[in-house]
Amino acid sequence: MKRVLVTGSSRGIGRAIALRLARDGFAVTAHCRSSIDEARQVSSSVLQFDVRDRAAAKAALEADVAANGAYYGVVVNAGVARDNTFAALSDEDWDEVLDTSLGGFYNVMRPLVMPMVRARSGGRIVVLSSVSGVMGNRGQVNYSAAKAGLAGAAKALAVELASRKITVNCVAPGPVATDMIAEAPLEEMLRLVPMGRVGTPEEVAATVAFLMSDEAGFITRQVIGVNGGMV
After folding, report:
1. Does the pLDDT of residue 48 top 80, yes or no?
2. Which of 199, 93, 171, 200 lies closest to 139, judged by CA?
3. Which residues are catalytic, by number?
4. What is the pLDDT of residue 190?
5. CB count, 10 Å around CB of 229?
6. How far is CA 114 from CA 6, 66, 71, 108, 122, in A?
């Protein structure tokens, strides 16, 4: 059974992705920063660490690989939003969003890439970006910068790993019915969505599941929008 890690999988989109991949036959390891009970409801295999903490991530992931072998797939999903106009952003708002998304990408993938390469079994890496990283969004300069950076990092890594039969792609959701948009101005948001509704976590998970499948073996270096036609 192929092993897959899904970061930030105790709730929302990450939870939906982990459950879908388990249903598709992958051995899923869930990851959380603090919500350990919720993560255990997703999978019996759970890693707990803050993706911003490089030493903690390295220690947890290297120990896991030593005990259980390399991952076939990784879904880099952990992220946070701290929305405000640029002039009103605090240093903490900027640092937390960038450190979680971009720092988290590095801190998680750095210990995992070479074991995947050495396993010589190919593999799948899917990075959760956002429509905000593609088109920019008022009040989200920090979030848009982080998500655009993830797309660039994924595209560059895709080139490096293509000869190893490891694909690297981004999925860029639009507004999705999770806690993250619970307090967002929904009416204003939906004016930007041609389909006139928010997406579901399961719709995003279905796209990730396809990219993790054997059928997606010739798809790499792509950013795939799940956004109701926003871009």
Report:
1. yes
2. 93
3. 143
4. 87
5. 11
6. 18, 13, 10, 12, 12
User: Residue 124: helix, strand or coil by DSSP?
Assistant: strand
C-alpha 178/C-alpha 106 separation (Å) is: 25
Instruction: Give the tokens for residue 119.
Output: 């396993």
Residue 72 and residue 120: Cα distance in Å, rounded?
10
Task: Check: CB of residue 170 under 8 Å from CB of residue 127.
Answer: yes
Q: What confidence tens digit (pLDDT) does each residue in 50-63 have?
A: 999 999 999 999 99
Token duo for residue 127: 């990075």
155 and 105 in contact (C-beta within 8 Å)?
no
- Which residue blocks in the chain are alpha helix, DSSP H? 12-23, 36-42, 54-68, 91-98, 104-119, 131-135, 141-161, 186-190, 201-212
For residue 25, which amino acid is it? G
Residue 231 has pLDDT above 90, yes or no: no
Report the pLDDT value the prediction gives residue 186, as an integer from 0 to 100: 73
Q: Give pairs for 56-62: CB < 8 Å, separation 24+.
A: 57/104, 57/107, 57/108, 57/111, 58/107, 58/110, 58/111, 61/108, 61/111, 61/112, 62/111
Q: Tell me if the pTM is above 0.90.
A: yes
